[in-house]
Write a structure and sequence with these properties.
The protein is α/β, with parallel strands linked by helices. 39% of the residues lie in helices and 14% in strands. The chain contains 18 helices and 13 strands. Strands 5-2-1-6-7-8 form a 6-stranded parallel sheet. The protein has a 3-stranded antiparallel sheet with strand order 9-10-11, with helices on one face. α1 (20-30) packs across α7 and α7 crosses α8 (202-209). The longest helix has 24 residues, at 169-192. The chain starts with 10 loop residues before the first strand and ends in a 5-residue tail after the last helix.
Length: 400
């Protein structure tokens, strides 16, 4: 079955650390690619130290983005280490890195420096601002890009400080774009025989995430405003409290409004009588309509309203805690929590890949590696190094 996975036979030299790059290579690993994660011999990926939370000696941040990979602890800043990089690049299909522009340049490992030596190699660079940006060598993390892209400006309650999304959503989106871009480059190489450079910027991704909000500004000049949980183009759309907890509903069109008014609220007159009988009327009288719904919902439990909402075919759900979501029966039914053995933790539980193929299932999850866990295996199996040569590299601090 392994040979049937979509990226079976693809080998990736992964210099990425923190989140966007590692999530990209983890997605490729799920699809069957072989990932050689190159880490600093002493500290490894930055996220190994990002704790709490942790389990045993492992930071859960690191565990979230590094399953199904091998760890090669290598100091590529030294000439011997750089030569090992070139030897591995000759045997790999893809190189992924997310350093600032100067890092690979100083080591003569940037794309322009290695493309003649490795013309087959697909070189994917993930950075904060992109290689052609005037800010190309500045550092930048996800919340900075949320701020600079305008994404924060319309997040939060009206009149309050803008809010960043608490998850690293720009990293997540960038990882998806990166995986898509690499797979496109693999298809292109099948036709041309040559690799190419992929330049992905978190800043660009953050702008792309603006989607309909960005389109609205570009074509009307209208700046979006803070609406909390509400949405400007449809009402009712937001959070409402019940006796036992909040629910979220999204009534996005007249058909759904009819189902909601008749089947959930049991108020058929709201469909025909002003002011709520038109989209414009509902938007223009948002506060009054929300108050009417809030009054009704407060009279019954969350389970009562969820049953009515789903029975009527209206989009809605409970506002769950993380624990409620990860332990929900539909989560188990979809196989979205995977358990795997870990050498120091025991049973490790992680959120699984959401991809479901009928013919080529994703790889069975293997625990994220310990730092340098596969150093000897990679050097011996891929580069045919003997034990004496490996020991000499370790004695000289080139590998761990």
């Amino acid at each position: 079955m392994e040979g049937n996975r979509p990226l079976a036979g693809i080998r990736v030299l992964d210099f990425s650390r923190v989140f966007a790059g590692p999530l990209c290579t983890q997605q490729m690993a799920d699809l069957g690619a072989e990932i050689i994660k190159v880490e600093h011999p002493e500290r490894g990926d930055d996220t190994r130290a990002m704790r709490p939370p942790e389990i045993g000696d492992e930071a859960t941040f690191f565990l979230a983005a590094n399953r199904n990979k091998m760890s090669l602890a290598l100091d590529f800043t030294k000439p011997e280490g750089a030569e090992i990089v070139h030897a591995l690049a000759a045997k790999c299909d893809v190189l992924v890195e997310n350093f600032r522009k100067s890092v690979m340049l100083r080591r003569n490992l940037n794309f322009e420096a290695i493309r003649d030596r490795h013309p087959h190699l697909i070189y994917c660079s993930v950075s904060a601002y992109g290689r052609s940006s005037p800010l190309a060598d500045l550092p930048g993390y996800d919340p900075i890009l949320q701020a600079e892209s305008g994404l924060m400006s319309f997040s939060g309650e009206p009149g309050q400080d803008p809010l960043r999304h608490p998850l690293s959503i720009i990293d997540v989106y960038t990882s998806l774009y990166a995986t898509q871009a690499v797979m496109g480059a693999i298809l292109t190489r099948q036709r041309t025989g040559r690799g190419q450079f992929i330049d992905l910027a978190l800043y660009d991704t953050a702008l792309s995430v603006l989607t309909d909000i960005g389109s609205g500004y570009l074509n009307t000049g209208t700046e979006p405003v803070q609406r909390g949980n509400a949405r400007g183009s449809s009402v009712p759309n937001g959070l409402f409290h019940t006796k036992t907890g909040p629910v979220y509903i999204a009534v996005g069109n007249p058909g759904l409004w009819k189902k909601f008014a008749e089947g959930v609220l049991e108020r058929p007159e709201l469909v025909t009588d002003p002011p709520f009988n038109t989209r414009e009327g509902r938007i223009g009288n948002r506060d009054a309509l929300n108050a009417l719904i809030s009054e009704a919902f407060a009279k019954e439990t969350r389970d009562y309203w969820i049953e009515k909402i789903r029975g009527a075919g209206v989009p809605g759900g409970s506002v769950r805690t993380v624990a409620e979501a990860l332990n929900a029966p539909e989560t188990a039914a979809r196989g979205m929590v995977a358990t795997m053995p870990h050498p120091t933790i025991g049973d490790l539980r992680l959120v699984a890949s959401p991809i479901k193929y009928s013919e080529t299932p994703v790889a069975d999850p293997v625990a994220p590696p310990l730092l340098g866990e596969h150093t000897d295996d990679v050097l011996r199996d891929l580069l045919d190094m003997g034990e004496n040569e490996i020991c000499a590299l370790r004695d000289n601090g080139i590998i761990r």
